[in-house]
Write a structure and sequence with these properties.
This protein is mainly α. Helix content is 75%, strand content 1%. It contains 16 helices and two strands. A two-stranded antiparallel ribbon has the order 1-2. A hairpin with a 2-residue loop joins strand 1 and strand 2. The longest helix is centred in the N-terminal third of the chain and has 18 residues. This is Gamma-soluble NSF attachment protein.
C-alpha cells in the first residue's frame, strides 16, 4: 500500500511539473498533466486512499478542461470516476452529482446510451436515501433512451419511476407515469403488460378518489388487442362496479384475488388496502394474514 501511495505522489509531482511555465516553456502541458493525474488517481484507488483518488480525478478533469483539444471521453470518465470514489466513501448525494455531470457530457459527446446507463446507476445508488431523486434520475435516463427510439429500455426505467412515485404517495404523478408506460408498451406491442398497467392505473385513480379517470382507463383499454373479455378486464369491471355500488364483498374479492395480490406490491397491495379503508368497506379485513393497519 505504501508503495502505491508513493507512486501516486510521484505522478502528482510530475503533473505539477508539466503545469509549470518558464522562460523556455510559455504554456503548461495540460495533456501530459492530465495523464499523470489519471495515473495518480489509479494508484490512490489501489491503495484505498479514496478521497485522494477523487481529488486526483478532479485534477485530471480540470487539466482536460484547460487543454484546448481535450478528449471529451477522458474528461467525462474523470468526472464519473470521481463519483465512483464518492460512492465507495458512502457519500452518495455527492457521488450522484458527479455522475449526473458525466451523463450530460456523454450526451453532448454523442454517447447517449452510456449517459442513460450512468443515470440508471445513479438512481440505484441514491434510491435507499432519496426516492424522489432516484425517480427523477430514472425519468432522465428513460428520456435519453426515448430520444434514441429505444423504447424497451426507456419503458423499463419509466416503470422504476412509477413504482417509486407510488411509494412516495405521489399519486397524480404516478398516474401520468403509468399512462406513459402503457403508451410505450402499446407502441412496442407488448399487450399483456398493457393489461397490467391498466390495473395499476385503475388502482391509483381510485386511491385518488377519481372514479371517472379509473373508468376511462378501462374504457380506453378496450382498444388494446385481447383486453376485452380478459381476466384483467373482467376484474377491473368488477372493481369499478363494486366501488361505485360500495359493495364491500365485491371490492374485497377483487382486491384479494391472486391477480392483484401477486402484482408489484408498490402498485397493487397498498393501493387496494387504502381503497378499502377509504371506502369504509373493509376496516378489519385481513390480507395475507395481516390486518389492514399493520400493512399500512
Amino acid at each position: 500500500m505504501a508503495q502505491k501511495i508513493n507512486e501516486a505522489h510521484e505522478h502528482l509531482a510530475k503533473a505539477e511539473k508539466y503545469l509549470k511555465t518558464s522562460f523556455m516553456k510559455w504554456k503548461p502541458d495540460y495533456d501530459s498533466a492530465a495523464s499523470e493525474y489519471a495515473k495518480a488517481a489509479v494508484a490512490f484507488k489501489n491503495a484505498r486512499q479514496l478521497e485522494q483518488a477523487r481529488d486526483a480525478y478532479l485534477q485530471e478533469a480540470e487539466a482536460h478542461t484547460s487543454y484546448r483539444s481535450y478528449p471529451p471521453a477522458a474528461l467525462t470518465e474523470a468526472f464519473e470516476q470521481a463519483g465512483m470514489m464518492l460512492k465507495d466513501m458512502q457519500r452518495l448525494p455527492e457521488a450522484v452529482q458527479y455522475i449526473e455531470k458525466a451523463s450530460v457530457m456523454y450526451v453532448e459527446n454523442g454517447t447517449p446510451d452510456t449517459a442513460a446507463m450512468a443515470l440508471d446507476r445513479a438512481g440505484k445508488l441514491i434510491e435507499p436515501l432519496d426516492l424522489a431523486k432516484a425517480a427523477h434520475l430514472y425519468q432522465q435516463a428513460a428520456g435519453v433512451f426515448e430520444n434514441e427510439e429505444r423504447l424497451r429500455q426507456a419503458v423499463e426505467l419509466i416503470g422504476k419511476a412509477s413504482r417509486l412515485l407510488v411509494r412516495q404517495q405521489k399519486f397524480d404523478e404516478a398516474a401520468e407515469s403509468l399512462q406513459k408506460e402503457k403508451n410505450m408498451y402499446k407502441e412496442i406491442e407488448n399487450y399483456p403488460t398493457c393489461f397490467k398497467k391498466t390495473i395499476a392505473q385503475v388502482l391509483v385513480h381510485l386511491h385518488r378518489g377519481d372514479y371517472v379517470a379509473a373508468e376511462k382507463c378501462v374504457r380506453e383499454s378496450y382498444s388494446i388487442p385481447g383486453f376485452s373479455g380478459s381476466e384483467d378486464c373482467v376484474a377491473m369491471e368488477q372493481l369499478l362496479q363494486g366501488y361505485d355500488d360500495q359493495d364491500e364483498e365485491l371490492v374485497s374479492r377483487v382486491c384479494t384475488s391472486p391477480l392483484l395480490r401477486y402484482m408489484d406490491n408498490d402498485v397493487s397491495l397498498p393501493a387496494c388496502i387504502c381503497l378499502l379503508v377509504l371506502k369504509g368497506c373493509c376496516a378489519h379485513a385481513s390480507i395475507r394474514g395481516q390486518s389492514v393497519n399493520d400493512l399500512l
